[in-house]
């Protein structure tokens, strides 16, 4: 019984390393590989999912909406780098997120960038973008079109 419970715990930790919030990847190398394979940009969200009021707000008002999820599934690879205070992340995920924080955090949370498959910025920080779901979709559509025109 203990072996079964231990195996389930390891499986749960591994699954959470592959995907964060619904539809969001948490493994940076896998996200870049998927972006390259599918020829899509990456939308990376640096978030404090369980303590940052603005992060929780953007998740509820934009990222969890049906329209955004449908748009994102067709157009971007979603990548989440979480910095929670109430739960402990696996050590390897914590280390990866700290590296992403050094490279991408723009002063505070949430910080959201549109990146190419190599991690190069294609946008300004989109963390405080106004207009809700429609505003996000419109801005991402514009940025993706602009990046493809280059």
Automatic annotation (TrEMBL):
<protein>
    <submittedName>
        <fullName>Thioredoxin family protein</fullName>
    </submittedName>
</protein>
<dbReference type="InterPro" id="IPR013766">
    <property type="entry name" value="Thioredoxin_domain"/>
</dbReference>
<dbReference type="InterPro" id="IPR051099">
    <property type="entry name" value="AGR/TXD"/>
</dbReference>
<keyword id="KW-0732">Signal</keyword>
<feature type="domain" description="Thioredoxin">
    <location>
        <begin position="4"/>
        <end position="149"/>
    </location>
</feature>
<dbReference type="Pfam" id="PF13899">
    <property type="entry name" value="Thioredoxin_7"/>
</dbReference>
<dbReference type="InterPro" id="IPR036249">
    <property type="entry name" value="Thioredoxin-like_sf"/>
</dbReference>
<feature type="signal peptide">
    <location>
        <begin position="1"/>
        <end position="18"/>
    </location>
</feature>
């Amino acid at each position: 019984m203990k072996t079964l419970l231990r195996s389930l715990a390891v499986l749960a930790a591994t699954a959470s390393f592959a995907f964060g919030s619904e539809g969001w990847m948490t493994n940076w190398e896998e996200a870049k590989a998927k972006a390259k394979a599918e020829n899509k940009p990456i939308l990376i969200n640096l978030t404090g999912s369980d303590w940052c009021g603005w992060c929780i707000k953007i998740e509820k008002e934009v990222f969890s909406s049906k329209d955004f999820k449908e748009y994102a599934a067709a157009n971007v690879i979603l990548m989440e780098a979480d910095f929670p205070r109430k739960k402990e992340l696996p050590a390897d995920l914590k280390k990866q997120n700290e590296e992403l924080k050094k490279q991408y955090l723009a002063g505070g949370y949430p910080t959201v960038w549109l990146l190419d498959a190599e991690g190069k910025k294609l946008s300004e920080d989109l963390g405080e973008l106004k207009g809700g779901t429609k505003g996000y979709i419109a801005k991402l559509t514009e940025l993706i079109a602009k990046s493809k025109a280059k």
